[in-house]
Design goal:
89 residues
């Protein structure tokens, strides 16, 4: 019973993080939103997850000129992978 409660809690946290990633991505499209307190909060919460992927991709010179934020996408998909693995337990 406790096992299921813990899995659901962790899954809820991961879903919340995915929502924050999505909100950060949408807010980044609007220049006036970047200086807001909400964007600063989203950046503060999501950047520690993105940062390891950013360090990995900096080593690959072919990814430097791409207009997409590859580390952001990798972090988001890793959250989705964690969620999929949780649901399989």
């Amino acid at each position: 019973m406790l096992h299921i409660v813990i899995l659901r809690f962790v899954a809820s946290v991961v879903r919340c993080m995915e929502f924050m990633f999505f909100a950060r991505a949408i807010m980044s499209w609007f220049p006036q939103g970047r200086g807001s307190k909400i964007y600063e909060f989203l950046y503060m919460v999501t950047e520690p997850i993105i940062l390891p992927f950013r360090h990995l991709t900096e080593r690959i010179s072919a990814l430097r000129g791409i207009p997409f934020d590859i580390p952001f996408l990798l972090a988001f998909f890793s959250l989705e992978l964690v969620l999929t693995l949780l649901y399989r337990l």
